[in-house]
Amino acid sequence: xxxxxxxxxxxxxxxxxxxxxxxxxxxxxxxxxxxxxxxxxxxxxxxxxxxxxxxxxxxxxxxxxxxxxxxxxxxxxxxxxxxxxxxxxxxxxxxxxxxxxxxxxxxxxxxxxxxxxxxxxxxxxxxxxxxxxxxxx
Length: 137
What we know:
By secondary structure, the protein is of the alpha+beta class. It has helices at 14-35, 41-61, 122-132, and strands at residues 6-10, 66-73, 76-81, 92-99, 104-108, 111-115. The chain folds into two domains: 6-13 and 65-132; 14-61. The chain has a six-stranded antiparallel β-sheet, with helices on one face.
């Protein structure tokens, strides 16, 4: 008998955005500090800051969001994305290749998905960890 699928309501992660912002801020500060002695140091560090800001904005809005339904059959995970009008997408193979204390890395078909603690409800995060964990790993 097939089990009911696990529902994962995925939202963009603010923790991931905050960590990336901190790294970009450190890189821009280092760029300004190293290049401040040169005449063009301010212009180059300003350009690096604008580029980092654009890349951060793009990375935050490119994060995957939606509802993913997961089911386990024959020791493999399969998933369906919920489409905008409620129907389900085609079945995709789901593979967990990173299972850390907080972060979970999934391949959903050809798409890479990083799930942070704030991108899922706590009970969904826990059920996904149980589903992906293999004993002795």
